[in-house]
Write the structure tokens for this entry.
Amino acid sequence: MINNLKNKKILLGITGSIAAYKSPMLVRELIKLGAEVEVITTPSALQFVTPITLASVSKNKVVSDMFDMSGQNEGAWHIHLAHWCDLAIIAPCSATTLGKLANGIADNALLAVFMAIPKNIPIVIAPAMDTTMFEFPATQNNIKTLQDFGFSILPPDSGELASGLTGPGRLPDVNVITNHISQVLENEISSQSANINQNERLNELINSPLEPLEQAVEKGKFQAELELERMKNSLIDNELSKYFKDKKVLITAGPTVERIDPVRYISNFSSGKMGYAIADVARKYAKEVMLISGQVSLTPPENVKFVSIESADELNQVMQANYEQYDVIIMAAAVADYKLANPFPQKHKHNESNLQLELVPTVDILGNIGPKKRENQILVGFALETNDALENAKHKLRKKNLDLIILNIYDDNNQVFGSDLNEVIIIDKNLKENHIEKASKTKISIEILKKIANLK
Ligand code: CTP
């Protein structure tokens, strides 16, 4: 395949389809092939990919807003942009943009520019959407209409889609798109292609720095992974900020301490790391985060309302005073199940006889809130079981009326307490299990918050 993209001006339109996450890779590939790229997006595309990423890979300002004049120095900027390019492509093209383009509706910057593209400039459309949307009769009609207009349609790939369905709708791989663009340009410029300057290409090859193949491959792989990671993160960022931006989140963490006398207590091994990690991630996205913590040796994250507690009773008091105001309550604290019926007011002295302590149950804080939680309030509990783990966790989920329960995977070799790593199974109300492999407590927190954001 010859590279006819060198010095070509490509206008890339991006719309609100999950496949928009591939767009920065497409921009980068086009630039690698020598093209100059201008990016224009619909407002909903920005739910999937950020203008900063697109601007940094395209090295040009990204246009998304019809009336934002900061990057548009002339009133008829959309006409200039439309006339500037050698080829224009919309990838991914959503069902909505297909429909609007087929019907001449120009209610955003992308559509206004694409409708102003002169007849002699080729336009490529790469539809990407869920199979059922792709098969919808109106979508099929719109595709036919655009074909009749002379647009080149790059058919979607078949495969697994974001919805979990399998079928046509996936945006083809980046190299398939660039090959298609090359072919379309080739047809347009076949007469010019004979003039490709062989000497220029040769010079380019001779002057390019040498790099051992292995190193180059490694580097490419690493960069691709980093890029994918960055893209995934920006998708997660969008998803979490969208859900949590107007939510108040209450998190409890750490052990409770039940006094025997002024210097002795009953407690457990909880380090508080899981709850603190959740608070640290949540504060980036939520409107407000309150962290209620037992006695641990961790520094609370900044910008959270922090309350320190000692006993289950104290935790209960703080919870009772606050829980109603919070939209999401995550109970990661390891609350003692028993406390002393009568703690000694003074230090108990050692003597030769046995000592019997009378323990009485503490209040089940989560169990009390569960039945009273208001509509749309999300309640998340934790469980750590040494036997019949799944069964016990599911029982707690139902008994305490929770939306989710996070079951810590426990085995003799698995050090949950105090570790920076954790492995969990997230169980939802429909008893659907989601196993999260061993990962940092930060990663586990992201998975938990993602699950909350996607609760139906
Ligand atoms: N929990 C609570 N109040 C208690 C005990 C537990 O709010 N007195 C919360 C924990 O913070 C956790 C969930 O309930 O989110 C499950 O805790 P766990 O101790 O596993 O549940 P229990 O109901 O105490 O059951 P078990 O008999 O297994 O201890």
About this structure: The mean pLDDT is 87. Residues 312, 331, 333, 335, 337, 362, 364-366, 381-383, 396 surround cytidine-5'-triphosphate (CB under 6 Å). The longest helix spans residues 213-244. The first strand starts at residue 9 and ends at 14.
